[in-house]
Amino acid sequence: MVFKKINYNSGEPIIEIKIKDGDGKFLENWVIHMSDLTKFVNIMGKKYGLNFRNENKELGWTRY
Prior knowledge:
By secondary structure, the chain is α+β, with helices and mostly antiparallel strands. It has a domain at 14-49. The protein contains one helix and two strands, in the order ββα. The mean pLDDT is 85.
């Protein structure tokens, strides 16, 4: 996982993410730049087995 080095003076928004399990137990903490967010979501989706694609295309509009 290669993300940009955090540079607080870059002017780009910085996101802090805390990941917990269903019981509230702390799992991970991340600090990333906004431009790395989509990469982060894809990697975490694969790590935790999340499926972001809606298999039912007819009702796909209901997700948003």
